[in-house]
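hiii so my PI (J.) wants the whole complex modelled not just the main chain, which honestly fair. so below is everything: two entries, each one labled with what it is. i double checked the lines twice but i was tired so who knows lol
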Amino acid sequence: MLKVLFFAHIKERLDCAGMELQWSDCPTDLDSLQAELCARGGSLWHEVLSQPNTIRAVNHEVVAGNAALADGDEVAFFPPVTGG
Amino acid sequence: MAEVVSDNWPGLTLGVSVQREDFDVGQLQRSLLEGDVGALACFTGYVRAGNADAPLERMRLEHYPGMTEKCIADILQQASGRWPLMAARVVHRVGDLSPGEQIVWVGVASRHRAAAFSACEFIMDYLKTRAPFWKKEQAAQGSRWVDASLDDEARAQRWQQSPGSPE
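here's the output for the full assembly
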């Protein structure tokens, strides 16, 4: 299983906090997963996830560039952070 | 409320709390006074009132449970690797906050003030640009997600150029 999470304005615009995907149906790297989500979700998903400042994390670590995925991973898409 | 406390090294206590409840600064300060502390530097962040045209009604703080605590704990570990700290703690609130309310507290205890001052600033600069929190401002005119600040990123970047202080 792969867990996918969305936060802040990405979650709002997609109207989706996250999803769990069967591992057997999952792409095995982050770029392919994003392409798959955009293909399923349509133009809104493509626009929101493809914003250049979108941050991607795998298992709570921010990833620069592509990354391999494994069964049980947690992937998150979120905008630049604004805490403090 | 989520709390992570690390006692990896004798004499060094690190703590992270992400919570809805308000916090007592005096109590937090006293919690860091273990051992022969000579200096305690603390920072408290508050919700600002907004500007006259668009006074803020409420600030909503969202975060990524699990990653937030891990990320702040990592920042505290980095700080303790750069300065000789005795204790460091971060408390960050989430949920709905009103103007004037406390959002975040950072406290650093050390033997001497230079390490405490620098580490406190480092932790805050990294927290603002690395920890997965997001602010949404709600005013009478509507609500908007706060944009990340380039100035905050520049402040965090300074620490990569200098080992001890941000000059």
